[in-house]
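subagent[fold] <- orchestrator: predict structure for attached chain, return tokens only, no commentary.
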Amino acid sequence: TVMLSPMTTKAAVSLLLVLLPLPFFSGCAFYPNYPNYSNTPSPLKVVEARDWLGIAPAATFNLRYYAIKQDKRYVEKVIPYFHARGVKDRSTIDHLVALDLRAIDQALTLLFARPHSEVIKRLVQNDIPGMRLEAHRIDHVGRELFGPMDVYLQILSEQSAKLGLRHDKYPPGKGVTKEGNLIFPSVQVVEVFRKTDPQVVGVTIGRIFFTVNGDPATKAGLELFQASALNNQNPQSIEATLQRQASLFMTASEMALLQKKGEASVQRLPEPVAHLAIALPNSKQVYAIHNRLGKAQSKTMKLYGAQVAYNPGDNSTNTKFALRDNYPRAPFNRIIELISYK
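subagent[fold] -> orchestrator:
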């Protein structure tokens, strides 16, 4: 069984069943655990199978087929981490890990298999006229994970060549792992989490970058989040990640369905972590766009912070803003970071 508080988790898992790709969940362990939702045909019939931004993982990026359950780290680190998050059922753990690996493949697809301008346009749409953000490249894709980030980073480092990528390692320094990835505590996201869960102990960020054939012009990476302190300690309950994942995929029709079903507990979903980080040439441009966005805030666009942020973990200057669709109780689920390392 999955040991979670009944109402919030019931609603969150309902959303995942409704919103995540339907073929993936055929025979999934969620069904016997949540029979009330497996027998709710109307949401499942009306929602199309889809990935974030409507882009499916490319065949080239196939970490989702990695035999992770045969990896000794699965028993040593993955399963204990899920137990600490309140998930005890092994088949449920297996499926949540499969979702993580698919999300990683999809993020790599956004970075290395599709034009960055196309990906940025899909996220921003036409909600910020005149900004021309699609003229810039994507620095990284951020995704929150159900499972332990450090294990996924290690596997990515080991499997990068098989994915057709070259691992671009960080130089040795504070927070840099022996594999050459950067792990550091969150400064901003942890405060966002605490707005809905004051008991959150910490949020950890892990970054891994790649190039294609060593070409620095192709350098881009993943920013993976886990809702726990460093070294996988004191993780937040899995239900919070489930709700943030549901928020990422929310649409007006799905919110209407939930309201019709009386799911009051998910009418105001927490904001997701998934985002695109767009690289700007220098910090002056970050400040300039931040100031412009601050004057243009509306019910469908907001800045994350009143001030431009400096992250000592990676020496970056950055700001974030979020967009949402124009319907009642719509979550801010299209998040863009503007970042410069200069």
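orchestrator: received. Logging for downstream: Strands lie at 138-144, 166-168, 182-185, 204-212, 215-226, 275-279, 301-303, 309-311, 316-323, 334-340. The longest strand covers residues 215-226.
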